[in-house]
Write a structure and sequence with these properties.
Keywords: DNA-binding, Transcription, Transcription regulation. Helices cover 49% and strands 16% of the residues. It has 228 residues and is α/β, with parallel strands linked by helices. A five-stranded parallel beta sheet has the order 4-8-7-5-6. A three-stranded antiparallel beta sheet has the order 1-3-2. Helix 2 crosses helix 3, helix 2 crosses helix 4 and helix 3 packs across helix 4.
Amino acid sequence: MEEIVGDRVKKAELFAEFARVGKALGNGKRLELLDLLTQGERSVETLAAAAGLGLSTASAHLQALRQAGLVTTRRDGNRIHYDIAGPDVLQLYSLLRSVGQEHVADVEPKRVAYLGVEGARSEEGEVTRDELLSRARAGTVTVLDVRPVEEYHSAHIPGAVSIPLDQLHDRLAELPEDREIVAYCRGAYCVLAYEAVDLLRSAGRSAQRLNEGMLEWRLGGLPVEAAA
């Protein structure tokens, strides 16, 4: 007996609309741009530079994300700024990564290769969100945000000190020597905090890494601050 499915043409049209979201996500560079936007609003120029893209290429990818309803735009003079369309897009992006790591065999070795999470790094201590909140309330740690300063301005963990990774070596004196440092960056797949902990430990500082980052912090509904 044939399944009753209603109007097949209308059903096909409906599923084609859903497919627009999947199509927009089906490109590595678009996902990288989306990853950057999980940190907060950015201009096309800064997104292009951060993703290593030409301006016209970045604009085309961002337009594809906008047409799929995943990002929104705001004009400021001659500049166009992009932002995530809503918390559900943050959840979708996070779930996409989790599904990939769970079900695509090649993801894990490439994650290990990118983050360098083997050898000494695989043995380093990590701090959970709950542990960080407890230690921060007790005043026993310095929370260090090593993302680019524009990302810190968009949203950061309350009380966090901003020292971008590329400035950390020259600004070590700004960090107290008598407290442990917990570094964080964009998310669980961000290499910046790993490299910051390596640098801090090589300088004789006590340092650990938040086992997640700003993406997971926001998804957890935890408080954030924005710079004036």
